[in-house]
Design goal:
CATH class of the largest domain: Alpha Beta
Protein name: Ferredoxin-type protein NapF
Pfam family, one: Fer4_9
Number of domains: 2
Largest sheet: 2 strands, antiparallel
Function: Could be involved in the maturation of NapA, the catalytic subunit of the periplasmic nitrate reductase, before its export into the periplasm.
Number of strands: 6
Radius of gyration: 18 Å
Shape: elongated
Distance between the termini: 33 Å
Subcellular location: Cytoplasm
Strand content: 15-25%
CATH architecture of the largest domain: 2-Layer Sandwich
Subunit structure: Interacts with the cytoplasmic NapA precursor.
CATH topology of the largest domain: Alpha-Beta Plaits
Number of helices: 5
Strand order of the largest sheet: 1-2
């Protein structure tokens, strides 16, 4: 049933995009990254938190279920192809945490695990009248390190590109 709908949407110009792969910090723009990356796995072998793995195509991707990014830049130092380049004052990426509908606090169950793991204090809890405080991500403080991701008991947290248009 979804296939005919997909074809119909395609013909109407409604293209569904697969979410972009999460690349290591300081990766070039996707097209340039794919052109430069040799799939050597050097970035993967030096990552101290083990979050860099290979996708089915062999390009490095991030797996935040394994841990968080410490922004140590070991992957950049190991990258001889130039697919990862750290420029002065350049942020590692535009990834930020977002809390979804499966959050326990949204279901009136006390949980503050994400806030406990956020070392930069980007997750704060807003009190609700007659209810459990809700977590809110301050995207200006969030580094996208994903320290909050793996500990979440309901996998309510997503790490995604921030939308500068909103």
């Amino acid at each position: 049933m979804s296939e005919p709908s997909s074809r119909r949407n395609f013909l109407r110009g409604r293209f569904s995009r697969r979410p972009a792969a999460l690349r290591p910090p300081w990766a070039l723009a996707e097209a340039a990254f794919l052109e430069a990356c040799t799939r050597c796995t050097d970035c993967q072998s030096v990552c101290p938190t083990g979050i860099i793995s290979n996708s089915d195509s062999g390009y490095p991707v991030l797996d935040f279920s394994r841990g968080e990014c410490s922004f140590c830049a070991a992957c950049v130092d190991a990258c001889s192809s130039g697919a990862l380049q750290r420029a002065a004052a350049q942020p590692p990426w535009s990834l930020r945490a977002a809390i979804g509908e499966h959050c326990l606090a949204a279901k009136q169950i006390e949980c503050r695990i994400c806030g406990d793991y956020c070392l930069v204090g980007a997750i704060r809890f807003v009190p609700r009248v007659g209810g459990v405080s809700l977590p809110v991500v301050d995207t200006a403080r969030c580094t996208g390190c994903a320290a909050c991701f793996a500990p979440c008991p309901t996998q309510a947290i997503r790490i995604r590109e921030i939308d500068d248009k909103t």
